[in-house]
């Protein structure tokens, strides 16, 4: 099949001429064999969706029929009807089959297996849960109208177990998918379009996160310096923005990412979209705003223009109450459960080196208020006095955060505790007292705050956390800019689901040897 640019009949002759040139011949030539290979490689989306469909079905059959057998046994239990119901009784075996079919249909209807949501972010999981609630809500409404008495225990057990198993299966598939994407497989092959500066920036962002599923294979820039590469990268320049069809064929790209429209003709983006094959090739616009996601971004079409509205970050009283309630509940339960471990660590610190068990350090919290942060002492007693003499010997951390890979102040017991983040556990009492949260920005030292640029102070909109995006995003290996970016992105896009995800990732990170940020 040839790759043909579809130009609308009302396009002016001037618009048509702008689409010819170096790319015009490529559009009229038959697609080379490499393009057919690209189509074959692009089938991973359908293959992956089929695999999700099969495992979703297996999970629901296991849950629904397993719940039925657990609740009613192997007998032929009947769905009971009220006296005035016009529906005759029928077997739960039939009802369970219908429930599975409707559940599977709703998962497909809500696009939970779409390649646009799989592999990264919480959208896939949210859609699975939303589809599940929709199914059981519909059952409740139909049962009420038709006066059908479905066993409540059977439904109340099927819903949470089904959602849990579906999300677990999707999570397992995601781990497999991310591992494949790190090797370049199961990823969209991306051709970047825009100025060299914007292309280089977006390319670095995409290549830094291969698990997201975007493999950059080339770029088209207005200058069109053929046989050259984007500065600072190995991405080949495939020609000007008029050479997109030929560039896509040569690189087997299936996705075009517009990194900036400032250097493009007014109608160029529309013409690019016309030239893409529906269903197989995709167009993505990368706005210049970064680290903003979720409900803060709304697209509203006005006179044919897709206007992007970006709301300013707001933290309602209800959100703060909900976050505080979760912090308090989990911290109290956590302290009770790990109290033997806390006692054991306290004894280890006490008898392993001279000095107090707890180390109290002044940190800066919400609204720039200072507080005393608790930690198990992991360094020698006069560690703070030794710091000035070690500043010139730092070999880790970044320009603001001091770290040494072989810090002589750390005790043997402290080294073990830091490796598994055990020295942070007393901060649960900070959470209970209200000066910290379980999840939040990193709590900085006063001397670090003195070096902050104005925009960095936005991290004080929320309480600092025991863990956060900085903890699971790279720890002390992060540059200062990346640390700030992660914290500000968390503050500006906070959600309860994001907190839960970070806590789960923290448990995983803490189980792997490594050093936490100071």
TrEMBL record:
Residues 323-509 form the Bacterial sugar transferase domain. Its main location: membrane. Residues 1-38 are annotated as: Disordered. It is a multi-pass membrane protein. It comes from Microbacterium profundi. This is Sugar transferase. GO terms for molecular function: transferase activity. PANTHER family: COLANIC BIOSYNTHESIS UDP-GLUCOSE LIPID CARRIER TRANSFERASE, SLL5057 PROTEIN. Its EC number is 2.7.8.-. It comes from the Bacteria. It is found in: Membrane.
């Amino acid at each position: 099949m040839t790759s043909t640019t579809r130009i609308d009949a009302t396009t002016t002759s001037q618009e048509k001429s702008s689409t010819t040139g170096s790319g015009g011949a490529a559009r009229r030539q038959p697609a080379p064999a490499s393009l057919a290979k690209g189509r074959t490689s692009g089938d991973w989306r359908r293959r992956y969706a089929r695999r999700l469909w099969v495992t979703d079905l297996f999970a629901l059959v296991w849950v629904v029929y397993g719940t039925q057998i657990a609740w009613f046994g192997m007998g032929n239990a009947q769905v009971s009807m009220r006296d005035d119901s016009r529906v005759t009784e029928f077997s739960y075996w039939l009802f369970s089959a219908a429930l599975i079919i409707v559940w599977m249909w709703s998962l497909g209807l809500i696009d939970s297996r779409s390649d646009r949501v799989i592999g990264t972010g919480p959208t896939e999981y949210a859609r699975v849960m939303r589809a599940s609630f929709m199914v059981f809500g519909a059952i409740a409404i139909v049962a009420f109208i038709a006066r059908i008495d479905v066993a409540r225990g059977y439904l109340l057990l099927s819903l949470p177990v089904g959602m849990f198993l579906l999300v677990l299966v999707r999570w397992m598939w995601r781990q497999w998918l991310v591992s494949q994407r790190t090797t370049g497989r199961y990823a969209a092959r991306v051709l970047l379009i825009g100025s060299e500066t914007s292309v280089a920036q977006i390319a670095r962002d995409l290549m830094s996160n291969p698990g997201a599923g975007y493999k950059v294979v080339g770029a088209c820039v207005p200058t069109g310096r053929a046989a050259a590469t984007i500065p600072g990268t190995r991405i080949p320049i495939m020609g000007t923005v008029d050479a997109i069809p030929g560039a896509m064929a040569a690189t087997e790209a299936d996705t075009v990412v517009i990194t900036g429209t400032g250097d493009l003709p007014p109608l160029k983006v529309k013409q690019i979209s016309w030239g893409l094959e529906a269903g197989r090739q995709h167009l993505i616009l990368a706005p210049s705003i970064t680290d903003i996601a979720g409900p803060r971004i709304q697209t509203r079409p006005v006179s044919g223009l897709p206007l992007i509205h970006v709301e300013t970050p707001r933290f309602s009283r209800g959100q703060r109450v909900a976050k505080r309630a979760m912090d308090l509940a989990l911290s109290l339960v956590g302290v009770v459960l790990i109290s033997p471990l806390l006692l054991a660590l306290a004894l280890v610190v006490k008898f392993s080196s001279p000095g107090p068990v707890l180390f109290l350090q002044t940190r800066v919290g919400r609204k720039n208020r200072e507080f005393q942060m608790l930690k198990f002492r992991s360094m020698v007693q006069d560690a703070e006095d030794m710091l000035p003499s070690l500043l010139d010997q730092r070999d880790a951390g970044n320009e603001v955060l001091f770290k040494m890979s072989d810090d002589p102040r750390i005790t043997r017991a402290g080294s073990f505790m830091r490796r598994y983040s055990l020295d942070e556990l007393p901060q649960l009492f900070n959470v209970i007292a209200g000066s910290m949260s379980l999840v939040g920005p990193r709590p900085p030292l006063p001397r670090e705050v003195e070096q902050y640029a104005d925009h960095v102070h936005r991290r004080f909109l929320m309480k600092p956390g025991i863990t956060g995006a900085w903890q699971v995003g790279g720890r002390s290996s992060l540059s200062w800019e990346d640390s700030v970016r992660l914290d500000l992105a968390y503050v500006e896009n906070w959600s309860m689901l994001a907190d839960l995800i970070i806590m789960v990732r923290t448990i995983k990170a803490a189980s792997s040897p490594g050093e936490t940020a100071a």
